[in-house]
Description:
- By secondary structure, the protein is α/β, with parallel strands linked by helices.
- Helix content is 33%, strand content 24%.
Amino acid sequence: MPIIPRSPRPSTRAAPAVPPPRTLLITLGGTGVPYLLKTSARARRVRLVIRPATGLEVVVPCGVGAGDVEHVLREKAAWITATLARMAERVIAPPPLAEGRVLSYLGQPLRLALRGGAPPGKFRAVLGKGTLTLMVATPAEETVRAALEAWYRRQARAIFAECVERCNLAYGFSYARIAIKDQKSRWGSCSRKGNLNFNWRLLLAPSSVLEYVVYHELAHLREPNHSPRFWAVVERACPAYREHRRWLKQHGHELGF
Length: 257
C-alpha cells in the first residue's frame, strides 16, 4: 500500500505583538534628548526621523532591543543634535487665527474672513474666490481652529476621493475604503486590507505634493514596502516624486495653522 505523505500543518503561531509607542530619554553630548520609540512590523531597519513639531522619532523592526537602539542613537549623535538645533532656529510661531489671516489651500493663498452669529459648537463656511468666510459663535482662537480643522477635513474627504480615482487611472489597482486622518508623523498609509488613509493637512500643501502622496499609497497596493520595485511603481506615474518628497521633508512641519 503506497504511503501518502501528510501535508504540513499550517502554523498556528501568532505574529509577535507590536508594543505601543513609548517616549524615552537619552543623553547626547551632555543634553537630554527625548524621543518617541515606535516598533513597526513593516520596518526592516532602524530609521530616525526628526520633525519640528514632534522632535526625534525612532522606528525599529520587531525584536530590536534597547541596546541596539541606544547604539544607533549614539552613533548618529552629531547629526541628531545638529538637526534638532537647526530646526529649533527655524520654528516661528504662526500668526493668530484672526480676521485677514492668510492660509494655504492646495498651494493657493486663502484669506480668512470671520463672521459671528453661529450657534455654540456650530459653524458655517463659504469658499469664495481666494477667501474662506467662516461664521462662528465666537472669534476665540480655539473656536476658529476647531471650525477650520472640521472644514479642511470635510474638504479632504471629497478631494482625496476624486484624486485617488484619477491617479489610479495610471495603475488600475483595487483598493478598499478611503479615510481622512490627523496623523502626527505620517502623510498617508495603506493597510493590508487595501484601506487608504490620508492626512487632511496635505490640503495645505501644493496640489502636486498631495498627488504624490496619493501615488505613493496606491503603489503600496502592489509593493507593501519601500524597495526599489516600490519606487519604480511610484516613478512610473509620478516621475517628479523626488522633488515632492523633498518638499515634504523641508516644509511638512509648516502644514498647520
